[in-house]
Amino acid sequence: MPLPKAELHLHIEGTLEPELAFALAARNGVELPYADTEELRKAYQFSDLQSFLDLYYELMAVLRTEQDFEELADAYLERAAAQGVRHAEIFFDPQAHIARGVGIGTVIQGLARALDRSEERHGVSTQLIMCFLRDQSSESAMETLEAAKPYLNRIVGVGLDSAEVGHPPVKFREVYEAAAALGLRRVAHAGEEGPPAYIWEALDVLGVERVDHGLRAMEDPELVERLVRERVPLTLCPLSNVRLRAVDVLEQHPLARMLAAGLLCTVNSDDPAYFGGYVGDNFHAVRDALGLELEQMRTLARNSFEAAFLEHDEERRGRYLAEVEAYEFGAG
Ligand code: HPA
Ligand code: ZN
């Protein structure tokens, strides 16, 4: 039995495996510029975030119907459950679909069909976080929030993703204020490729409660001190960082130093179909590469539930945390 954990940094579009991409392409009459899954997999060589995003957005062309989004989410939840995920807070990118003529209702209702069955079918509780694309305008983000209003009961919060450098958090001040006024929780990608200043801004201007990645926080001791003091969770994605060349090799990943500094670190998969592993694979990889102790693995699992947006159901959080404390290492 794998270590129970929550996954808090997962783009549902990034769980699109090549086999499903081709199956959906055939069903929807979409032509992909790759002969087969093998040729597609060869394209999974990234030099930075943008080189990945180009392929990520290209493959989304196959996602067209509610059923497509349902099958995508169901496939993720099955794989996640097999790796010990008990709770998942799932990002989606509505603007990338709206731009292709796929409405936000199709996306949310399709995902919801899988999420509504997830506890029963996979033993995984779920929530949705709607992300704004930071390389699009703030007006577009505001229009997206407006379009999401009929579905707000399905969404726990908002996030910010896509190309980071040159698109600082401050650009989205108004839309985050509007989201907060609607009762939505706030997170943002910051410090993946961008500087520590973007993490400060995400905290001070956007009011985020968790920082997605936050990898570059360690460059700024004052920032680390604040993140520790305020117990701001960081959703790290180690295999993603290697694949997108944010770190050279996993052995040089700052996770162990971040834990030692007292940061509330979690480990997540980001876009597992593209980065060579789901969340359990990320746990195993950091344990091997960084020589983490078993009790540090338990800390990562505990942190994931402490950082989850479960304030409406503390009883559930308590059950998950009790599972983590009772977990016996050895079986995998
Ligand atoms: N970073 C930024 N945007 C993204 C990512 C990521 O790792 N994955 C999907 N959108
Ligand atoms: Zn991400």
Count the domains.
1
Strand order across the largest sheet = 1-2-3-4-5-6-7-8
Strand-pairing-aware structural class? alpha/beta
Please give the CATH class: Alpha Beta
Mind telling me the CATH superfamily name? Answer: Metal-dependent hydrolases
Can you write the helix and strand succession as a string? EHHHHEHHHEHEHEHEHEHHEHHHH
Low-pLDDT regions: none
Major β-sheet annotation? 8 strands, parallel
- C-alpha-based Rg, rounded: 19 Å
First and last CA, distance: 6 Å
Oligomer class: single chain
Helical amount: 40-55%
Strand content: 5-15%
Shape: globular
Number of DSSP-assigned strands: 8
- Count of helix runs: 17
Q: Based on the structure given, which CATH architecture is correct?
A: Alpha-Beta Barrel
Instruction: Output the CATH topology.
Output: TIM Barrel
Can you give me a brief rundown of this structure?
With 332 residues, this protein is α/β, with parallel strands linked by helices. Helix content is 48%, strand content 14%.
Fold topology:
Layout: E1 5-7, H1 18-28, H2 37-42, H3 49-59, H4 66-82, E2 85-92, H5 94-98, H6 104-116, H7 118-122, E3 125-133, H8 138-147, E4 155-161, H9 173-181, E5 185-190, H10 196-204, E6 210-213, H11 221-229, E7 233-236, H12 238-243, H13 255-260, E8 264-267, H14 272-275, H15 279-290, H16 294-306, H17 314-326
Parallel strand pairs: 1-2, 2-3, 3-4, 4-5, 5-6, 6-7, 7-8
The protein binds hypoxanthine and zinc ion.
Catalytic activity: adenine + H2O + H(+) = hypoxanthine + NH4(+)
Keywords: Hydrolase, Metal-binding, Nucleotide metabolism, Zinc
Cofactor: Zn(2+)
